Structure formats: structure tokens, C-alpha cells
Amino acid sequence: MNEKHTPVYINGIGIVSPQKPLRAEGLLTEPVSYHASQLRCPDPGYKEYIPAELIRRMGRIIRMGVTASKICLKDAMIRYSPEHENPINPQAIITGTGLGCIEDTEKFLTSMIKNNEEFLTPTSFIQSTHNTVAGQIALLLKCHSYNFTYVQRGNSFESALIDAITQMKTGEFGNVLVGGFDELTQHSFAIMNRMGFWKRKPIDNLQLLNDHQRGTVAGEGAAFMFLEKQKHSGSYACLRGVEIFHKPASNNDLRHRLNKFLARHDLTEKEIGFTLLGFSGDTATDHFYHELIKSFPENSGFGYFKHLCGEYHTASSFASGLAALIMKSQSIPEIVRLQSAEKNSAPEYILIYNHFRGANHSFTLLSRP
Amino acid sequence: MEELIEKLKKEVIEQLNLEDLSPDDINPDSPLFGEGLGLDSIDALELIVLLEKNYGIKIEDPKDGKKIFFSIRSMAEYITENKK
After folding, report:
1. A168 and A252: one domain?
2. Are A157 and A260 part of one and the same domain?
3. Which end of chain A is more exposed for a tag (fewer CB within 10 A), N or C?
4. Is the Cβ–Cβ distance between A202 and A217 less than 8 Å?
5. Domain tally, chain A
6. If you average pLDDT over residues B1-27, what whole number do you get?
């Protein structure tokens, strides 16, 4: 299979994040600032997207995921059912999540403990599985096609992307709705806090990299992309390729992997106009990003995104959506830039390099459509 | 009875997460399933658990469910007759 010769276009984007709705026009001109240890998504108006009789059973992550998917389909101008006549539904729904519907899982387990394993109610149990979001999207759309959810820690979204790209390149599907999502709950925050994931004191999220405590700021969100083989006038970007890997053995290994990844797309570091890095402000794991920067020529452009969405297993889905929006707007928002790299404001290629807790690493490459 | 009906309305709203409804919106004589509140089979399971957990009442014969859960009033009457 030759990754280079079957383009996959990003033709729709839907993001629910701690930021205001993201669009190519006026992208992040008013970034939302929080003084907190965790960034949560405000209600974007779920009731606009989900029927009232269904929304009452849905936890926050299901609402976030379903809403992001519907924003995405609308953006891609897909005439999905049941809201359109002669509907055309996605040929596949592929999602990735690190913790799934953790709020419902917590409810179910808490109820088991509190009631001595009696009086168990069905709703939170039914909704607690990792594939609930993809399932609910399919039920809402009456879409009976391929439906798959990847759960692979910090590479969950990338695994979904790899499946989508592979199946499109092998001709299995002409289009795929692909997404990543994770939610923050007080329990999961507290447990990960004990493990030293988060900063001990609240910080100003927009000053994430200026805070020198260990840990990072917790986040959440849902981001969906509609991928198609055909390029449209409204296409955001071309998704060139994705690679995942576990804990690089050394700095050299990391640079070598980057070099090989780019070479597979006939590229070198100097042709990458802009690299979006997963800097989280955690002094224990940000060194990977500093190392990768050394691979690029001096005038290369770099940006970061976790000050906008926080850290979570599928934060890379936010990054992919953001990179595609940057590609379409052909300008890099000031709040995203790591260095003032004016000359790279209209990049031909954008590379995303992210890792979760130093363990699950990924490269994602986008180009102009 | 009226006091129990008001209490039940609140419990049903909470248990079924009927977030757009207040107790005043529920007519105690309206059907809970189909028309009326439009509840479904998953809600029926939630209501069975509610009766057992909050009132210690176990429904032994599932056929009785249709009559017991017809409305808030029929639930209240069943609780009054069977509460231990």
C-alpha cells in the first residue's frame, strides 16, 4: 500500500472544547482563559443537536461526542438521516477514546458499592461502555455501517485515524466519520491527581508553559472529522499519514523515527512549514518536544495547543482539528505560536507531534488540500 | 396520598433524569408510558428499582407492572397498599 498516492481529505470538522466554537474564520482570536487545574467544556447548546427524549439518558461525554459529530457532518454538508430526505450517511464511524464514558462507569460502580450490589439501575450501565458514543451516533443517524471504537490510551484517536485511512486507501470506504473524545470527572481527576498527573495549584491556562510545577492541566473534549476521498471546494486539508509508537528509546530514536516518517512522504524536516507540538507544561515529559525541535532548521515554525484544551488521552483529536482549521485559514493564531514565525503563516505542510505522559507518541501529517 | 404523589413525582424526575420537567408538569393521572411522559422499557426497569430501593417493594409478578406503573397515582396507591 502506497500512502502517498491515495489522498484522504478532511472535509468537515466538529469540535467541542473548553474554547469557544472553533472556525477557520477568526480562529482563536478570543481564546478562553481559565484559572484552574482543569479545563472543562461549556455546554455548546446540546439540545440543539440531540432530541429531548434521548438527551436525558446521555452523560456529558455522549452529549459532547454526539454534538461534535453532528457539527462535523453539518460542516461537511452531509445530508444525514433522519433530518434530511434521501439521506446519505457515513460509510463508517470510527472513534477513539482513552477512558470512554467514565462518568457513567463511576455512577454504576458507586451505586454498586453504596447499595451493596443491589438495586442496580440499567441506564448508567448501558451507557458506560467505551463504544457508547459511536453507537449513539449510529442510532441517531440510523447508520448501520462499520462502527468501531479504539481504546489505546494516549494513541486511541490515532488508532481510529489509522483504521480510517487504511480502509479508505484499500477502497473499503469512500468516506469515514472519525473522532476522539474524553471527559473529565471529579473522580478521575482526583485519582490521576494522586498519580501526579496534574499541577497542584490552579494556573492561568494561557500561561501553561510559564508555570514550573510538575504535572499539567487536565482537559477534555470531543473532535470529529469527516474524511473523504474527494476534494471539495470546502476541504480543510489533506490527511497524509499517521504513525504511533511507544516510548522512544533515545533522543536519536525519536529523531530517526521522524526522519523515516517524513521520508515515507518524500519530505524532509525543512519542508514542514509548521509543527504543532503537544507541550503540556509538565517538566517531566516536555523534553521530548524540545528534542524534536532540534531536528528542524532554525527558521521553522512551531506551535502548541494543550493550553487551550488541557491534557487528556485524545487531546490529539483537538490538535488534528486545529491543524486542519489552520490549514484552511492559512494563518496561525498568535495564541498557538511558540515562536513568532511570521514567514510560516501559510504552511504547505503541518506536522503534529504529540505524546501522552511520555508513553504514547504520534506523528500526524497534514498538507494543503 | 397527595403527599406521597408529590414525593413520587420528584423521585421519578430524579431517577429518570427528566431534566426539563418539574413536579407541577406531571399530571398524576396521565399515563407514564406511550403518551403522557413517553417513558420506555429502560425507564420501567428504573421504576422497578426505585420501588424496591425507596419503598422496599419487590414486584414479584412482571404482569402486574402494567397496572402498577400506569400513572403516578397508581404507583402511589400500590405503595400505600404494599409498603412494609
Report:
1. no
2. no
3. N
4. no
5. 2
6. 93
* Residue-range definition of the domain harbouring residue A224: 9-228
Chain A residues with CB-CB distance to B52 below 8 A: 118-119
CA pair distance A64, A45, nearest whole angstrom: 10
Question: Pick from B20, B49, B52: which is nearest to A52 by CB?
Answer: B20
Walking along chain A (369 residues) 10 residues at a time, the average pLDDT comes out as: 73 98 95 97 95 90 98 92 82 98 94 89 91 97 96 98 96 96 97 95 96 95 97 96 97 97 96 96 95 93 97 98 96 87 75 98 97
Tell me which residue in A53, A57, A118 faces B38 most closely, judged by beta carbons: A53
What span, in angstroms and rounded, lies between the C-alpha atoms of A258 and A254?
A: 6
Contact of B46 with chain A, judged by CB distance below 8 Å, is answered with: yes
Q: Which whole number is the average pLDDT over B64-72?
A: 93
CATH of the domain at A330: 3.40.47.10
- ipTM (interface predicted TM): 0.84
- Chain A residues near residue B20 by CB distance under 8 angstroms: 52, 56
Do residue A278 and residue A344 come from a single domain? yes
Cβ B53–A119 below 8 Å, yes or no? Answer: yes
Tally Cβ neighbours within 10 Å of residue A71: 23
Query: What SS3 class is residue B78?
Result: helix
Do residue B46 and residue A126 have CB atoms under 8 angstroms apart? no
Residue A309 lies in a domain: yes
B18 to A56: CB separation less than 8 angstroms, yes or no: yes
> Do A189 and A288 lie in a common domain?
no
Taking only residues 49 to 68 of chain B, the set having a beta carbon closer than 8 angstroms to any beta carbon of chain A reads: 49, 52-53
Q: Which three cell numbers stand for residue A23?
A: 472556525
